[in-house]
Amino acid sequence: MASGADAEYVLLDTNMGQVVVELYTDHAPRACTNFATLALKGYYNGVVFHRIIKDFMIQGGDPTGTGRGGSSIYGEKPLDDPHPLLKHSGAGIISMANSGPKTEGSQFFITLAPTPWLDGKHIIFGRIKSGMSIVQRIGLVETDESDRPVTKIIIRKARVLERGDGEIDDEAEAESGTRTETDAFGPVEVPNERYYGAQTFRSLSNFKINQPADRMPEPIIKAFGVLKKAAAAVNMTYGLDEKIGNAIQQAAQEVIDGQGKISSDDFPLVVWQTGSGTQSNMNANEVISNRAIEILGGKLGTKSPVHPNDHVNMSASSNDTFPTVMHISAVLEINQRLLPALKSLHQAFVAKSHEFDQIIKIGRTHLQDATPLTLGQEFSGYATQLEFGIARIESTLPRLSLLAQGGTAVGTGLNTKIGFDVKVAEEVSRITGYHFKTAPNKFEALAAHDAIVEASGALNTLAASLTKIANDIRFLGSGPRCGLGELSLPENEPGI
Hints:
It is an enzyme of class 5 (isomerase). The protein is an alpha+beta fold. The chain has helices spanning 29-40, 132-138, 168-176, 198-206, 218-237, 242-257, 278-295, 308-312, 318-355, 375-400, 420-432, 442-447, 450-476, and strands at 9-14, 17-23, 47-53, 57-60, 93-96, 108-111, 124-130, 154-161, 178-183, 186-191, 360-365, 368-374, 402-403, 437-438.
């Protein structure tokens, strides 16, 4: 077993999850030895985090739980001077809580945000290596007016991790159930079993006004798979490494199929996000990148050999990607699900209009008796409503089939190759089996969504038609003793 002086990593097993601390032994040797030795002795076992201030810090290490207790292995001797190169530059910095009586002995705090006013005042002796998501969750618990958690947050056990024969990163991640992913804002901890990365995780934190029903629809996710696969194929013709391109296509196909190692849990984002769909685009980039890395034998979160931006999002921007995905998903859903169902319903009404063509009934205006007609004629009206509804929807498809991809950020096509847009549309057509073309004017395709609005209008008209038909049939089937009772509707459940 490692001694406190030799320790480099300490695991804190809390009742909210496990956190691994990396010790800065070169910069704060006495503070690190003190912390690790106390962990080895079981000093922190059962100790609570007694003070939690949202967006500031969580504090623990006092066996009395009051914030006024604890002692170091060195007695009254000072630990270290604050190192001038170490700064409270972000979340996950761990420091000695040495601003009050007896706080320098065993008490420590972990930052939840940058706290530069503490620089030079507290001894920084480490950082959170893994389990930052656990620290963030602890920082959100309910507290009283004295910043004490309403429900106890306990360090069940603290122990020193030994390097052994493997890498400490692997052991830490296995212990914590998370891995470290980074973006321009710094490191975050994401679940080991998920393929998404830092930007997806941040979106989950930034957009909390959601319900399970608010999840980004599955057809949008599948359309991302189609587009990313098509883009990889085209980018390979422009120089993207063949191994990387093939791995991206394989991962994207798993997104399309909804099978393989990628699952719906890898796409947890909701519709509440920026209007450009940046978060969902990066979600797709991260998932496909990490899966491609895995396919090529790499390690998740390293962005090597497949980078989510440089490779998966090559020649693209969220500003042209999300409009393209909207159009692809709309065309696929209309052709594969909506139109077949509508045409089947239309044929059913046509068949009923023929079946009922000899049944004479009374017509009505304002529910008053009018002149006779056949029930078949009445049903032919329903059939024609559906016929026209189908035609309206089909008329929107030529404009929905125009893709914005290739316009990049503002429609100019900056950072793409000449012909990229045409080739992507051709590749999307090949993958889906439906004809797509590049939009003739990318400025319109990015800045307006008139084709989607047009399709929405056609769907709204169809919905009004179906509501009218359903209300008519319900009214004609009312009774049978005291209503019209002209239609006999099949029973499908008991009433009370």
